[in-house]
Design brief:
Elements (H helix, E strand, L loop, with lengths): L1 H27 L1 E8 L6 H20 L7 E8 L4 H13 L5 E3 L4 H13 L3 E4 L6 H4 L5 E3 L4 H14 L6 E5 L3 H16 L6 E4 L8 H9 L4 E5 L2 H13 L5 E4 L7 H5 L3 H4 L3 E5 L9 H9 L8 H18 L4 H8 L4 E3 L2 E3 L12 E6 L5 E5 L1
Parallel strand pairs: 1-2, 1-3, 3-4, 4-5, 6-7, 6-8, 8-9, 9-10
Antiparallel strand pairs: 10-13, 11-12, 13-14
Length: 377
């Protein structure tokens, strides 16, 4: 009986040891990468785009053999576009999840504080959607983006207002957030340089539902163009209340409304018809991504908005891991600044600050069918 007990004990120890080494081997066989953004809250539709794009990219890369003989393992992190929550998320990704890179965050107000934690921990961070110049102007060595900047986007918007819309009485409204105010101010700056002085400049509060007092002010000023810096929920609500009060001024915004949730918050297709916005040249039409786009559509998901930006961001991280054959953020960053990466959005390369060398903002118009189409570069 004693011998049997001894054998059982030895067997249990052997199994435990095997399980432990198996777990270690599994950890060594994967690169943990995170997708961070608003998976819940008022901007969760953007989070869904990010999650779908990142997960599909991970699955495709793993299906093709992975990176350096290892698989990518995706960690999904929800910051709800809340700065404090973003900092908490960053801490968890660094200290608990031990990720080697982060695709995110989405809102600039989340990305900026979270990036401090990643830079301190020497972890590569590539945001697919944060356009505020401060993201990269701080010159943190491990911070990149696969989208353009507000100052680039604001110039395209202002030029369109002056040259195409012939705007004379322009109202500039923002949501007081880092992104919303940033893009509004960038557009305002170029408008002012071109001789157009806004007749109204005001902020509204994200999450509010009643902007009728502001709408009444806009109506009274005889505004012909309303430019809004912010996201889909507030933009749609503002558009709906403008139309309800009979204000037919052209409504213009930016990439923060590149989402079908904008149509819903605006009260339907009729209210968004004629709305214009700036956004990157639609990656769904890029020849480099046609196979991936077809795969999304076959699965019943339209890869609009930031879906392919997230996919391209994971491709960027994977390329850096493969090319540098290390996980240190500074080394990954050095490799990216010296190389061009083929992505579903075409080949991408970065300058010394981590900004794209080429930004491709164009202007779109929302149509009566509730979708948007490119108007002009």
């Amino acid at each position: 009986m004693k011998l049997l007990t001894t054998r059982r004990t030895a067997m249990c120890l052997a199994l435990a040891s095997a399980a432990m080494w198996s777990a270690v081997a599994m950890a060594q066989a994967t690169y943990k990468v995170a997708i961070a953004g608003p998976m819940t809250g008022g901007n969760a539709s953007f989070g869904e785009q990010l999650r779908r794009g990142a997960q599909t990219a991970v699955d495709d890369i793993n299906g093709a053999g992975g990176v350096n003989g290892k698989k990518l393992e995706l960690v999904i992190a929800d910051d709800a576009c809340e700065p404090k929550q973003a900092v908490s998320v960053a801490s968890r990704l660094v200290e608990q999840d031990k990720v080697v890179a982060v695709a995110g965050h989405f809102c600039s107000s989340s990305t900026i504080p979270a990036s401090e934690a990643y830079a301190e921990a020497n972890i590569l961070m590539v945001t697919p959607g944060s356009t505020n110049p401060k993201v990269t102007d701080r010159k943190l060595p491990t911070i990149f983006r696969t989208c353009g900047r507000d100052d680039q986007q604001g110039k395209v918007a202002a030029d369109f207002i002056v040259e195409k819309l012939k705007g004379k009485k322009v109202a500039i409204i923002h949501d007081k957030d880092t992104y919303g105010k940033g893009i509004a101010d960038a557009t305002k700056s170029v408008l002012n340089q071109r001789g157009v002085k806004e007749v109204i400049y005001e902020g509204l509060t994200r999450g509010e539902k009643d902007f009728n007092a502001l709408v009444t002010k806009i109506k009274g000023a005889g505004v012909d163009v309303v430019y809004f810096g912010g996201l889909s929920a507030e933009a749609g609500t503002l558009v709906r209340q403008l139309r309800e009060q009979g204000v037919q001024a052209t409504f213009m915004s930016a990439d923060g409304i590149a989402d079908k949730a904008f149509v819903t918050s605006a009260g339907g297709n009729a209210n968004v018809k004629g709305v214009v916005m700036t956004f990157g040249d639609d990656p769904r039409s890029n020849p480099a991504g046609q196979t991936v786009v077809a795969g999304f559509r076959k699965a019943g998901f339209e890869p609009e908005g930031y879906t392919l930006y997230a996919y391209a961001t994971i491709q960027t991280i994977a390329a850096a891991l493969k090319g540098s054959k290390t996980t240190g953020g500074a080394d990954l960053a050095k490799w990216l600044k010296s190389n061009t990466v083929p992505t579903v959005m075409g080949s991408k390369s970065w300058d010394a600050n981590g900004d794209l060398k080429v930004a491709d903002y164009v202007v779109y118009e929302w149509k009566a069918d509730g979708d948007y189409a490119k108007l002009a570069r």
